[in-house]
Amino acid sequence: MRNLIDIFDLSVDEIDALMALADDIIKNPRDYCDRLRGKKLATLFFEPSTRTRLSFEAAMYELGGNVLGFSEAGNSSSAVKGESISDTVKVISAYADIIAMRHPREGAPLVAAMKSDVPIINAGDGGHHHPTQTLTDLFTIKRKKGRLDSLTIGLCGDLKFGRTVHSLISALSRYRNITLILISPDELRLPGYIKKGVIVENAMKYSETTDLDLVMPVLDILYMTRIQQERFANRSDYVRLKDSYILTEERLKSAKPDLTVMHPLPRVNEISVAVDRDPRACYFEQARNGKYIRMALILSLLSEQWLSCPDKKQPFISPVGMKCENPSCISQTEQELPQEFRLVDREKGIYRCRYCDTDILDK
Ligand code: NCD
Fold this sequence. Notes:
By secondary structure, the chain is an alpha/beta fold. The chain is built from 13 helices and 12 strands. The strands form 3 sheets. It has a 5-stranded parallel beta sheet, covered by helices on one side. Strands 2-1-3-4 form a 4-stranded parallel beta sheet, sandwiched between helices. It has a 3-stranded antiparallel beta sheet with strand order 10-11-12, with no helix packed on it. Strand 5 (151-156), helix 7 and strand 6 (178-183) form a beta-alpha-beta unit. The mean pLDDT is 94.
């Protein structure tokens, strides 16, 4: 059985196959409208969502399947009674054939996958990963540019808490000749596990700047993101940083004529509404693509060929007394979950949490 917890769960060939399938679904929707008759998708959304949840649901309905689930853990799930992820998932996997889960705690979908009898799709875990948005983003780039290599890509906004950016960079690390330009306020730079663990580790070309205007002329793609208000520990920091970047028609004057402007949505004010008229704006098309690539993913995870592929195995250890220090990690709340780490730097004594990827120094 296969899950999609982070984008590295898929090989580049599998991503290509998903995109080819999504293209075929767009061309021949009638061939797919009955494929999952009798199957059920559970959408367990412990955190708000409009697009992602509804695109999963629309995807399942368009394949002829059914949907059950909840969209507000606070009012309508047993999480409010203190139920663990493990118990919730064991129960739901008796009712549904596949589960899409969004959770504010980083690593929650991984814990779900460890307990579930049916495939789990991570629909966003805290500020950590969002692999189906990444499939949407790759599919959009491929359709617009005809390729996924030899591109200069600007990622702008909240690179610290923006999970879509973390998953997208992870995916791009496997394509050739990508140049990343990381545009953010100093306080909202990428976390170490992406910068060191993905960009440096894979020798990707990259630069960092706070100045969007300076780099605008060289970009093939500009990926704007929202400042993630809900993940700030301190409201005054959010207020200070929230208007860091606002993309306007004026600013786009120095951009390439074939720039592609992307955004995972929802937008707050980081792209002015007037930009929607610019033919380079691609974010609504991107949202539309999300439904088709999710159709391809659900179909593939429920198909015989995909069932047989082995899950990746990694050596994890539990050094005595070591605890993850990330307050948003699932290991802080899930009962009896072992604290597990991977040794990433023997010399400096750095361990990385299995669930949320936070680096811990062995003291
Ligand atoms: C993103 C998310 O939830 O991380 N939205 C989405 O899935 N389309 C981006 C965001 O919330 O800013």
